[in-house]
Amino acid sequence: MKKLKKYKEQEFIDRGYQYFMRHISVDCVIFGFHENQLKVLLLKWKDLQQWCLPGGFVYKDEHIDLSARRILTERTGLDNIFLKQFYAFGDPNREWSKRKNVPLNLKKGSWLMERFVTIGYWALVEFSKVKPAPDELSDECRWWDVNRIPKLVLDHNNIIEKALESLRINLNDYPVGNTLLPDKFTMPELQQLYETILDKKLDRRNFQKKMIALDIFQRLNERKHGGAHKAPYLYKFNQKKYQKAMKQGLRFGF
Amino acid sequence: MKKLKKYKEQEFIDRGYQYFMRHISVDCVIFGFHENQLKVLLLKWKDLQQWCLPGGFVYKDEHIDLSARRILTERTGLDNIFLKQFYAFGDPNREWSKRKNVPLNLKKGSWLMERFVTIGYWALVEFSKVKPAPDELSDECRWWDVNRIPKLVLDHNNIIEKALESLRINLNDYPVGNTLLPDKFTMPELQQLYETILDKKLDRRNFQKKMIALDIFQRLNERKHGGAHKAPYLYKFNQKKYQKAMKQGLRFGF
DNA sequence: CCAAAAGTGTTGCCTTTACACCCATGT
DNA sequence: ACATGGGTGTAAAGGCAACACTTTTGG
């Protein structure tokens, strides 16, 4: 696979289509969880000074899933991330030439000015392990509270909406706890995570019972101190039991 | 939108990329239900003599959903079809130049020989209303039992697999009965439909109760005669109640 | 009249929901 | 000490699976 060196920005703008497929891009909605808030990782374009999703293009001989993974690794420093393709956005208005403000001084006729169909992925990462890194075209990369996203570039707000929707629908089948929380966590924290994603309150007592009945957690002889009031137990995922249960079609019940 | 006239086949092969986006295609898995079997509509290539999914390309200014709809209408004669985008297939092996047998006498360098990412849609249609019609490149278009699909072109078998999977997952939320069955139908027929899609037996009595409890059907003063034994009642969807229930998040319970 | 399929009802179980009680901790 | 959040238990409600019985039809 011919790869484009990072520093050759003008080469990318002028002749990127020799390396990448035209008309196809990949955008990633990277979810994290911190201070009881669901977060999304965004980038700020150098020239537009507007925020956008981390995204990129697909090398001519690269699987689209791999493109998404490549982008994720570049932005977060992590590999082996939980990743799901959720939707292809194919509105013909998805092109810069139909916008007033255009990045990179793009000229009419550039391959980047043409219409793109973007494949949307969402990813679940452990907030504390991420080292947000801007790419060559952006000067900032940071977390945003999912409820306070600014007006983004193109249709990226819509992409986040759809990603959230997909995340909610898949909450039953996917290990959001295992991927979004740190290694050790408390039941109230896990509950907060579900409540945030579902955007509704759950009964504390029933939640615990339900989770523990799944028999995929391991309670440690350790409590989380520091907060006021009674210190809650810390839990780990019992990865062995958890993997087994997933194979048998575990459902979390949401 | 510049449209390509049908008869200009050579023009399409040589310069189709002037009308359509490169690297992007749309494939439709059209489901029908007949004689208690789930069916899929397939086409046979004129030259390859191999079967494939109905598919096509996306005009440069056309929404991908509309491309899918266009293809559906051309093949089935129906519009207003229930349609769902379910997955984007982005394996780099999806290209003819990596195959032994190539259709249309395509030469190296042709835009059609390049790699395509295809957006998969599935559609639910009423079997009896469909008039299967081959396109310009195929000489046959007919229904195949979903359990007896032959070896198809490229990764089209895999696309059908994924479509079925998606259909099963969405069985809870989507009106498979309303779209796959004729206007009037019996409960045993509806049950057969669910059993076929889910590939498992359901209890006749519990099924009826559950369905009727949804309060979206209207029982007619009419029975389905002709079969041996007791004649079952005919039902219609009460579209008003049904639409209302769907908006409120009706779940069928599968 | 009989076999097979269709319509209706009942029961018991198990999951979910609601809520009561006690315990621990920092202020 | 006390307000607040955390851990555990129980009882009622509702949904679902299992099964019995009657009715209808073509042969």
CATH architecture of the largest domain in chain A: Alpha-Beta Complex
Largest interface: A-B, 20 and 20 residues
- CATH class group of the largest domain in chain A: Alpha Beta
* Total count of helical runs of at least 4 residues of chain A: 7
User: How far apart are the termini of chain A?
Assistant: 43 Å
Which value, in Å, is the CA radius of gyration of chain A?
A: 20 Å
Any overview of this molecule?
The structure is a homodimer of 254-residue chains. Chain A is α+β, with helices and mostly antiparallel strands. In chain A, 28% of the residues lie in helices and 26% in strands. Chain A has helices at 9-15, 64-76, 156-169, 176-180, 187-198, 204-213, 239-247, and strands at 20-34, 37-45, 51-52, 55-59, 82-89, 117-124, 138-145, 217-223, 233-237. In chain A, the strands form two sheets. In chain A, strands 1, 2, 3, 4, 5, 6 and 7 form a seven-stranded mixed sheet that branches. Chain A is elongated. The termini of chain A are far apart. The model of chain A has no long low-confidence stretch (mean pLDDT 94). The interface between A and B is medium-sized, with 20 and 20 residues. Chain A binds a DNA duplex (27 and 27 nucleotides) through residues 186-188, 203-206, 208-210, 223, 225, 227-233, 253.
Sum up the structure in keywords.
2 domains, homodimer, 7 helices, alpha+beta, 28% helix, Nucleoside Triphosphate Pyrophosphohydrolase, DNA-binding, seven-stranded mixed beta sheet, 26% strand
